[in-house]
Structure formats: C-alpha cells, structure tokens
C-alpha cells in the first residue's frame, strides 16, 4: 500500500537530506512537491493544504543542530504530521466497546466493500485474541446467497452464525439475533447489513431501523480503500444517516493511491480502527498511524535518528544550564528557556508535579491564578527585550519597560511581575545550584 505516495515523497526527501544546509527556497520547493504528491494520492485538497501549512510552520521554528541535516529534520516533521493527520488526537486503534454482553456490532457499507469478509475476520479476531463468544448474522435479504456466504465463513473460522430463516426481513433477523445472543450467552453479536451499490434511501431506512433495535455499541463502516476520495464521501454519508463509530479500510494490500486513509480521519473525524490487507481470514490489522506513516515515508531510520538527536540536544541544553546555575548565573534567556521547557513538559501542572517539595508553591501558584497562558505571555515579554537586556535585566529602565510591554501587547504590571519572578527564581537557582548536580534541578529538568 502507498507505493506511489511513498516513492514520490521518498524522492523529494532523498534530495533534501543529501544537502547540508537548506535555504527557504529548498524547503518551499520540497513542500510544493509534497503537496502535489498528496493530491495525486487522492488526499483531499483542504487536508493537503492544512498538512503543508502545519509542516512549514513547524519547520520554521526548528532548532538547528549539528548531528542531523535540516533535510532529515524536515522528514521527521513530515512524519509527525502524518501521524497526527492519520490519528487525530487520541485514538485507540483496534479497540472496540464490547463490554456488557451481548454487545452488538453493526457492520455497514456499500456492496462489494468487503463488509461480509470483514465481519468474519473481525469475529475470528475477537474469538482468538480476546476469547469472545461471537454470533454473526447476515441481514442481507437482497443479494442471493449472502446469508449462506456468511454461514460458510462462520464454519471456516469456527464462529456461530444465526440459523437462516427464509422470508424474514432484516429487522426480523436483527430481533432474532439479539434474542439468540442473549439466551445463548454470547459476548458479542455482529449484524452484517445488506450492502448497496450507492447511498440509497430505502436501504438507509432499513439500517436505521436495525440500529434502533440493536442499539449497537459499535457501528463500523467498511469502505474500500482503493476508492480514494469516494471512500471519504461514503463515510460522511453513512455517518450523517446512521452514525458511525469507526472505519475499516479494506484492500489496503493493493497498491492503490492510499489517500483515503490520510483524508478519512481529518475529513470525517472518525477513527480508522482496522485495515483489511487481503482476502484471507487473518488479513486484518489494527490501524497503527505510526506504522502507516512510516510506510508512507519509508524513512524510519531518519525518524529515529532525529528523535535521538533531539534527546541529545535537550540533555546538552540541560547540562549547559546546570553549569550556569551552579555559577549563580540566571538571566532572562535562561528564564525563557525554562518557561518554554515548562510548556513542553505539560505546563505548570506537569512541572510542579515533577519537582519534589514544590507542593506548597504549587498551591500558591494556583491561588494566584497562574496558568499556561501566562507562560506564553511571559515568553512574549522576554522576546521583546533586546539581547543586552535579556543578558542583564537590571538594565531595564521605566521607559524601556513601557516599550517592551507594548511590544508584547501587555501591561507594564505584567512585566514587573515577570521581573520579580526572575529575581526570585535567580535566588532559588543559586541555592539549588549549590546543592549539586544530583539535586532538585536535575530532576526537574528530566
Ligand atoms: P461485501 O459485498 O461488502 O460483503 O463484500 P465481500 O465481503 O463479499 O467482499 C468482496 C470481495 O472483496 C471478496 O472477493 C473479498 O475476498 C474481497 N476482499 C475483502 N476485503 C479485502 C481486502 O482487505 N483485501 C483484498 N485484496 N480483498 C478483499
């Protein structure tokens, strides 16, 4: 999967990583090529646009380091952004809500998307990986032999299917499945609804009625990953009509354009839970954004190289600071680094939690109404000071203070507070520095 996109991006990044120093133009050109590659892979235009914007913003704010080339850094940024686009903020791929037996899972999708196959693959997985007792039922009374197809798969994987009763409607079958699942002590029952060639009102109504009877814990939409942008449209339609809790992308074993995966999460907001990777019953995988991003880029080595380099940089920075503090040096640049570090470490909450003996101060800080937006404002204030002022805050006169505050769009009183805090911290740092390397400071900076 993703061969084409991967090759295209690979080419762009190969050129990039071979260069020692990158100009803005190099990055611009590379990003333009990335954008074209995304669009050709059928990633939707707004998604591609946001993607490029996020990357250029992050690339602009990168710290320059010796151990890796800027091109390698860009690859890492693209990788992280791919993961973000694929995963959204917090998904648990492959996790299904199937507590409270019997838990109903409703399977929906267009005809030929791989719905029946996926139903059986998933049942097998639940049985083998989670030891669940699963009952499958086909509600497809339109397509001849659809119910028999599921029964055959059931026999093959050793999962029960609801006995076929000719002439029943989908709603009747759903009721019967629910009853049988309850009486038979099943953990999960899966309803494989009738496929349709395209979104069709009558069949949608039917799915809605089935949904209302079963009250599914999960409604999984099965879409053919090869259909690209169409897959995303289908997902939006189904979600608006019946509500979808997750997506299964099938045929990701083919060398399709793969853009559906990239747009799916961003456009529909629905998590991809599984991917189908073949016709065999065990060709179903949890969806791992990291793995997929790695496959798209084909640059796993660079990604881990950059991660390591970044850790080293942070350790070196911490070491340098330690030395300064031990000498009793703590200027506005140091404070700024500390504030930035605090934001990175999860804000006030995070850092206070990590510093032993900070409980009391934490309470004071909270009582004073201190939150992370203050950190950002303080950084802005320091940014509007000159180099000399940062190195030696004592230089600041009233007129300069006014201008600095205005430069940051803030009041002088905020600047005064910042300066007071700096003095207090400088005192504290001096004391802590004397406590030696293994002291609180080292711990606080991780
Ligand atoms: P339904 O009409 O949505 O129920 O589709 P089926 O489950 O009958 O699948 C249609 C065809 O697609 C069958 O030949 C399946 O074997 C095939 N198929 C399903 N999932 C995958 C997949 O992930 N990869 C590949 N290569 N084929 C698949």
TrEMBL record:
Gene Ontology annotations of biological process type: SRP-dependent cotranslational protein targeting to membrane
Membrane topology designation: Peripheral membrane protein
Subcellular location: Cell inner membrane; Cytoplasm
Enzyme class: hydrolase
One Gene Ontology CC term in the entry: signal recognition particle
Annotated catalysed reactions: GTP + H2O = GDP + phosphate + H(+)
Binding site for GTP: 109-116, 192-196, 250-253
Source species, domain of life: Bacteria
One Gene Ontology term of the molecular function aspect: GTPase activity
Keywords: Cytoplasm, GTP-binding, Hydrolase, Nucleotide-binding, Ribonucleoprotein, RNA-binding, Signal recognition particle
InterPro entries: AAA+_ATPase (IPR003593), P-loop_NTPase (IPR027417), Signal_recog_part_SRP54_M_sf (IPR036891), Signal_recog_particl_SRP54_hlx (IPR013822), Signal_recog_particle_SRP54_M (IPR004125), SRP (IPR004780), SRP54 (IPR022941), SRP54_GTPase_dom (IPR000897)
EC number: 3.6.5.4
Domain named SRP54-type proteins GTP-binding: residues: 271-284
Pfam families linked: SRP54 (PF00448), SRP54_N (PF02881), SRP_SPB (PF02978)
Protein function: Involved in targeting and insertion of nascent membrane proteins into the cytoplasmic membrane. Binds to the hydrophobic signal sequence of the ribosome-nascent chain (RNC) as it emerges from the ribosomes. The SRP-RNC complex is then targeted to the cytoplasmic membrane where it interacts with the SRP receptor FtsY. Interaction with FtsY leads to the transfer of the RNC complex to the Sec translocase for insertion into the membrane, the hydrolysis of GTP by both Ffh and FtsY, and the dissociation of the SRP-FtsY complex into the individual components.
Annotated domain remarks: Composed of three domains: the N-terminal N domain, which is responsible for interactions with the ribosome, the central G domain, which binds GTP, and the C-terminal M domain, which binds the RNA and the signal sequence of the RNC.
Quaternary assembly: Part of the signal recognition particle protein translocation system, which is composed of SRP and FtsY. SRP is a ribonucleoprotein composed of Ffh and a 4.5S RNA molecule.
Record family assignment: Belongs to the GTP-binding SRP family. SRP54 subfamily.
Protein name: Signal recognition particle protein
Species of origin: Profundibacter amoris
Lineage: Bacteria, Pseudomonadati, Pseudomonadota, Alphaproteobacteria, Rhodobacterales
